[in-house]
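Below is just one:
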Amino acid sequence: MRSSAPAPSRTPPLAPVPAPERDDVNGLESAAALLNKFKELSKGGTFTYDRKRRPYAFYGTNHSSVSDVLQANLWKFRLTTVARDVLDYLVTHHDRQALVKTTQAKLGEHFCCSQTKVSKAIGELSRHNFTWKEKRGLYRLNPLYAYGWGSDHHRELVVSLQNVLLEHQIEIPTVGKKETSR
């Protein structure tokens, strides 16, 4: 006669699960704990909770930001290669007041071209109001195209240069469709 008792189970009983630590949620570390670990490991990394400011990653000590609208339409200006090179140089070498200390001779030497080509390039950039000469060896980059060191400083600079910027507005050229000849 067979007994109605169940057959013994071959799996061992499970051990009780330890209670999670205070900083763990469902076995995962909390976001605060992860941020603190990252902050310790990154040696100087910062986190911000201010929605107006966003963290940037950039090389070197200078931070430049360029107007997205002007950058997207830069092709419409039909800048020469030297003018574009000079503009890029000004964007990466300006100070907190959007000033660049350089001469046309130094720029010519830097780009391995004549001072005349640099002079024409600066003239082209000046006509479009990307830059203008403040005095000999000192050029101002239009802070509405590019600026440095963050948005608070940018606003202060634009306010301080308000009258000058009204005289140096960058207007995006209109480019019509090319007429086809028959």
The domain at 66-167 is CATH 1.10.10.10 (Arc Repressor Mutant, subunit A). Residues 134 and 162 are 16 Å apart (CA to CA).
